[in-house]
Design brief:
- With 260 residues, this protein is mainly α.
- Helices cover 79% and strands 0% of the residues.
- The protein is built from eleven helices and no strands.
- It is elongated, with a radius of gyration of 25 Å.
């Protein structure tokens, strides 16, 4: 990614963050805005005369904090990590430099993540969000119901060995049920399992392209063309092999099915 593209993305992210913050402040109750809670949060906490005013202020602070942590939550609790690592391995194995570009790979990984996680988030919406909006659940009950589908997804993808590792590090007893595993243990175990699975898939992706590199390098050496970089000759063969084998279809299909 060029320096201009990176700076453009950073500026866009900053403006989006500012816009979301302004929307949150504008969505605060009228009494909160009259007391200056949206303009100076810290000063509002000091000047608050009622507990509900402090609660509104803390709600805004927590909401802004969650927005800043949203990318990390998306990466660490969904299928995004495995997908983006595998796509990165594919680009390195093909040696196509910046093609596909980073924006395309990240966009593809995000759309695949939304597709894979849609059943989980549908359960979150049906079991937690909608009942909470209809005043059928309290805030704590809705949070527990929302975490349950996400925990189920992470448990299905987490290897027992990785989970046992973090249980031992945390010096916790062996849990009797999955519900006994705390979230601060489940999340790093899930990420570790995703990294391991992604690297295994990347290894299998590298094998056919490595064979092509070895064949081309051996052929060039036998012909006495040692000054010609083998990558210049092998790159067209890698691309045509990937296209003829319908590589994108096979790769994306295998990635999505690996989460079933």
């Amino acid at each position: 990614m060029s320096r201009g593209n990176r700076s453009g993305l950073i500026r866009s992210a900053r403006w989006i963050s500012i816009l979301i913050t302004l929307l949150l402040i504008g969505a605060a109750p009228a009494n909160a805005q009259e007391d200056g809670l949206g303009l100076d949060i810290l000063q509002a906490v000091e000047d608050a005369a009622a507990p509900d005013q402090i609660g509104t202020t803390l709600t805004v602070v927590i909401a802004i904090t969650l927005l800043s942590l949203a990318p990390a939550i998306l990466v660490m609790t969904t299928s995004f990590t495995r997908i983006i690592i595998v796509l990165g391995f594919l680009r390195q194995a093909m040696a196509t430099q910046q093609s596909p570009p980073n924006q395309v790979l990240i966009g593809l990984a995000l759309f695949l993540t939304f597709f894979i996680m849609s059943p989980t988030y549908t359960r979150v919406n049906n079991e937690a969000l909608q009942p909470y909006l209809q005043d059928q659940l309290t805030q704590s009950e809705a949070l527990d119901n929302a975490l349950e589908p996400i925990r189920d997804f992470m448990f299905r993808q987490t290897k027992p060995k990785d989970l046992a590792l973090f249980l031992n590090i945390a010096q916790l007893d062996r849990p009797d049920t999955p519900d006994d595993v705390p979230l601060n243990v489940l999340m790093p175990a899930f990420v570790l399992s995703e990294l391991k699975t992604a690297f295994i898939i990347g290894f299998y992706i590298y094998i056919p392209f490595l064979i092509i590199d070895m064949v081309v390098a051996s052929t060039l050496m036998s012909m006495g063309m040692m000054m010609l970089p083998p990558i210049f000759v092998s790159l067209p063969f890698k691309i045509i092999m990937f296209v003829l084998a319908d590589g994108w279809y096979l790769l994306i299909g295998s990635l999505v099915q690996s989460f079933n």
